[in-house]
Each structure stands twice: as C-alpha cells, then as structure tokens.
Amino acid sequence: MRILAIESSCDETAVAVVEDGRNVLSDAIASQADMHALYGGVVPEIASRKHIEAIAGLADQALRQAGVTKEEIDAVAVTYAPGLIGALLVGVNFAKSAAFGLNVPLVPVHHVRGHIAANYIAHPELEPPFVCLCVSGGNTLIVDVQDYTRMEILGATRDDAAGECFDKVARVLGIGYPGGAPMDRLAQGGDCQKYPFPAVHVHDAPLDMSFSGLKTAAINMIHNAQQKGEELDLPSLAASFAAAVSDTLVPRTMEAARALGYGKVAVAGGVAANSRIRADLEAACGKSGDRLYLPPLSLCGDNGAMIGCQGYYEYLAGKRAGMDLNAYANRDIKKG
Ligand code: KG4
Questions:
Q1: What are phi and psi of 267, to 5 degrees?
Q2: Helix (H/G/I), strand (E/B), else coil: 197
C-alpha cells in the first residue's frame, strides 16, 4: 500500500511516499528555517505562505523520486494536529484535494504520533509496546506506546517544551535559529558542572516536567553577566544547560520504563538529536538493561516519511477523515 504523506505543522513543508508503513520511497522536505532566522523564531503568517508556495512542487518531487504515478497512490495521510493552525491548514487542504482528486481515503495523523513512528522506519524490528520520550520544539511528553494507535501520556511539561528553551537561550546568545543544534555544538568541550541550574519537581506528578524556570535562569544569567560586563564561559554554560534539560528528561523516562517493564525505550522529535540527551539515555539504558531506540538525526526533525508511516498504522486501525477534516493547534495524543 502506497501512502502520499503531507506534513506542514511548523516551518518544514514535507511530502513523502511510503510503502506499507516502513518502506520510504521518497521524502521531500523544504525548510523555511533561514527565513524565520531573520526574526529569531517562527513567524506563523510567513510559515503559512511558504507552505502554500512549496507544497504542490514538493508533492510532484516526492512522486517523481519515488517513481510512482498519482494513480498508484492508495491513500493520503496528513498531519492535522498539533501545530501552527495556519500552517497545518495548508497541508490539510492540500491533502483533502489530493484525496478527493485521486478518489482515495484521507487519513489524519497526530504530529507527535508521527515523530514516534520515525523509530519504526529506523528500526524495522521495533514494535509496541515501549516507552517513548517525545521532545520537540512544541512538545515534551513521556508516552506509553501500548500499540501503534493506542497511547497514554505518562508525563508532560507544564509550561515550555524542551526545544523551545534551547531556541530561546540560543536567541539571547545570538547563535542562530533554530537554536538546539548550535547550542549542542557550543556545548562540546564545555564543563557541564560549572553553572548549576534549578531542578524542578512537580508536586504529586513525578513524571511531569517544567522548563520555563530553567530557561529564565539561563537567560537571567546571560543578562546579568552582560550588565556587569562579566564574561561567561559559553561552552560551559551550554553544557550545563543541556545537562539540566537532560537531567529533567532522562530520569523520568527511565522511571516510566521501570514502572511499565516493557524493556524498550525510544526517543522522538527534534530534541532527540541532542548529543547529551542521547548519551545520558544510552548510559541509563545500559544500566537498566532496557533496549534503547534512537532515531538517526535525519528522522528526528519534522519530515513526511514519519507521517506516512504512522498514517499506515492509523489506516489499518480504520481511521479515516472526510472533506470536513479540520486542523487543531492542540490535540491529545491519546485521541490521535
Ligand atoms: O521536531 P522538530 O523538528 O519540530 C517540532 O515538531 O517542534 O523539533 C525542532 C526542535 C527545535 O526546538 C530545535 O532547536 C530542536 O528541535 N533541536 C535540538 C537539536 N536539534 C534540533 N535541540 C537540542 N539539541 C539538538 N541537537
């Protein structure tokens, strides 16, 4: 079964052709990051316009690269939530037109479920159940992946997403947008114990997280130093910050893994590319005996292949949308 998959939830337009869930025939992506870098963050209106400009050409490119004609497409899958509403609507409307024109089913896909599915592409042997740490620019969740389409949230951020914190601190340091990868590079060789950051615990919800205090602490530290004319050891600041984020994410993920006892831990989303978080998870799983599934860096960020993969499993579970499909800025992963 061949699925044409469409992703436009943030600042990447992506269209892929995926066969039987895990065989990626093509994965065309147009990033708008350079455009938004001018403003230090995603400008939603610009994102929507850029998606409109890119999406039809990308769909042609994805079909061409896959060596597949439109008539050989069996279903269209699309990210419909969560994300920037205007950006999502571009993908949803394009997908509706494609499904209608080709007379094939339309399958709505939850963006974070798509990120989790990136692991199925990278690891053909991986099957649920497992615990997945989902960390991106807009989401931070610890998910009990009971089956391909049955999931429970075990823990979530109460405020900012982990990726957003990397981006905001990077912006104050003036090292680029999106800031996660430059922060990661800056942290190499830094002393991760030099700058202590607060550790937050949510009362009565041990797997929930909070990152806004951590972000504010880092930004205040930078501003204070600037005002006093003091020089900060920036690699050590970045390394200490990454360690604090990782110390929030990794022990909670491992606690969830221990409680559920599946023996399998996966990571998903743009922040899953972070070298400190990957290393800490490797060490923790080495100790606990859990098998760790890390997606390759190419599948951590937004892409269409992951939507085609999850779309396949949603299709098998009977999920369909009509021409009245809407987009949603927020949507519970449990509802899908
Ligand atoms: O999954 P993604 O591409 O988009 C969303 O669905 O949000 O994630 C983007 C986020 C950005 O916040 C970016 O700064 C972060 O992933 N990111 C990283 C790294 N690479 C990307 N954060 C930390 N370390 C990295 N190496």
A1: -130, 150
A2: coil
pLDDT at 40 over 90: no
Atom of ligand 1 nearest to the CA of 269: 1
**CA dihedral sign, ordered 311, 316, 322, 323:** positive
CA of 163 to the centre of ligand 1 (A): 5
Does the pLDDT of residue 226 top 90, yes or no?
A: yes
Question: How much is the pLDDT for 179?
Answer: 95
Q: Is the CB of 273 under 6 A from ligand 1?
A: yes
Residue 192: both structure tokens together: 């991760």
Q: What is the mean pLDDT of residues 194-206?
A: 93
3-class SS at 144? strand
Residues contacting 217, CB < 8 A, separation 6+: 197, 198
- Say what the pTM is: 0.96
User: Residue 23, by phi and psi: left (phi above 0), alpha (psi -120 to 50) or beta?
Assistant: beta
Instruction: Return the structure tokens found at 91.
Output: 């993908």
Going along the chain from its start, the domains and CATH numbers come out as 2-115+301-316 (3.30.420.40), 124-298 (3.30.420.40)
Once rounded to an integer, what is the mean pLDDT over residues 222-242?
97
Structure tokens at 61: 């490119």
List the structure tokens of 186.
């800056």
- H-helix or E-strand containing 106? strand 106-110
